[in-house]
Amino acid sequence: MAAPAAPRGSVLKDVVAYVEVWSANGTENYSKTFTNQLVEMGAKVSKTFNKHVTHVVFKDGYPRTWDKARERGVKLVSVLWVEKCRTAGAHVDEALFPAANTHERLPCLVKKKVST
Fold this sequence. Notes:
- The protein is 26% helix and 14% strand.
- With 116 residues, the chain is an alpha/beta fold.
- The longest helix has 10 residues, at 31-40.
- The chain is globular.
């Protein structure tokens, strides 16, 4: 017999999220909508990107936020992850919904060290 689904308010109880969701042209901040959904599912939402943050919900945000999340090994997820968790009533695998970085620069050409 399958385990009962977690109550909606505890689906993301172990998540501390920082939300940065903007319109493509950068004029509209849509973070509040996703913040509310995360809180309804039991996540904590931080107003600042601090050491407690486990997830960054990111769409067309600041390049510095992206870089900081990558440096710290924080999970960068798209808004689709929030929606899927909500509709599934479960903590869905973040790897299935990676955030896209529209500011991603071309990788630098790095000379590889030659081992002798």
